[in-house]
Design goal:
With 264 residues, this protein is of the alpha/beta class. It contains 9 helices and 13 strands. The strands form 3 sheets. Strands 1, 4, 5, 6, 7 and 13 form a 6-stranded mixed β-sheet that branches. The protein has a 5-stranded mixed β-sheet with strand order 10-9-11-8-12. A two-stranded antiparallel sheet has the order 2-3. The longest helix is centred in the N-terminal third of the chain and has 22 residues. It is globular and about 60 Å long.
Length: 264
């Protein structure tokens, strides 16, 4: 009986090793949001022009996770809805880098442990609302016209009806809508706002008419990598990423990497 049990354990171990071996040498196809999500994912600039090289915390983290597995990656920034659809299918792309979880995504993707979380801030136009907004909780947001980016879930806003949001293609468009009085408030991660403010074309840091304040939420806005359930190697890739991510977290390297990118 003991011998049988030992053989079974060894066979299970062989299966796991075989799955890992199948990953070695594979170039995983990765996509993320074309709107950019600095400091986590964005396109490098030289002299104010995009070089085409995608960089940021999430990209460097992916490199660190894949290197011990003998894997490479190719990344492309796509319209967000298309990226989600492509990874869901698993044919052309198998992994996306930055997404919040919800029941639909839990059904469609294999989701990693959180790789970072953002602090939630709300923004308004001081041109339209010179006295500011009376917002102490999510409940207070319901009295205002709330704007959001197409396809974003805003999972930290668990008391808000997402169907009520007026959507725009990106945050620059939402800020313009604030100043035009078409919406009253938008919600952005503080870290992302500072990242966007440093990119040409946004100039958010110089906008003195843009008011901002922290928003109290019940839980942090956690972001994850998500792997296709439909690709044959999806489960093996997800398990390997989870294992490598746990190693980085235990060693403190994950926190050091994040801190370095947030300081830029």
């Amino acid at each position: 009986m003991r011998r049988l049990l030992l053989i079974l354990i060894l066979c299970l171990g062989c299966g796991a090793a075989q799955a890992d071996a199948r990953l070695r040498g594979w170039t995983v196809q990765v996509c993320d949001d074309a709107n950019e999500w600095p400091p986590y994912t964005f396109v490098e600039r030289q002299d104010g022009r995009k070089t085409g090289r995608v960089m940021g915390y999430s990209v460097e983290l992916l490199e660190r996770l894949l290197q011990p597995l003998g894997m490479k990656y190719r990344i492309e920034l796509l319209p967000w809805a298309r990226c989600l659809q492509e990874v869901r299918r698993g044919q052309n792309y198998q992994l996306l880098l930055n997404a919040t979880r919800n029941p639909e995504r839990e059904r469609d993707f294999l989701i990693s442990a959180p790789i970072y979380s953002t602090r939630t801030y709300y923004f308004w136009s001081q041109r339209v609302h010179p006295q500011g907004l009376r917002v102490r909780s999510q409940e207070d947001l319901k009295r205002y016209r709330l704007g959001g980016v197409h396809g974003y879930t805003y999972s930290q806003l668990d008391q808000i009806d997402m169907a009520s949001l007026q959507r725009a293609p990106n945050y620059a468009s939402l800020v313009a809508m604030l100043h035009l009085g078409r919406i009253d408030v938008i919600v952005v991660g503080e870290e992302v706002f500072h990242g966007l403010a440093g990119l040409p074309g946004y100039e958010l840091a110089q906008d003195r008419e843009l008011g901002r304040a922290p928003l109290a939420v019940q839980r942090p806005n956690a972001f994850h990598m998500m792997v296709s359930r439909q690709h044959p190697l999806g489960p093996a890739l997800h398990a390997a990423l989870q294992a490598e991510l746990a190693k980085l977290e235990r060693s403190g390297a994950l926190q050091q990497l994040l801190a370095r990118h947030l300081q830029r």
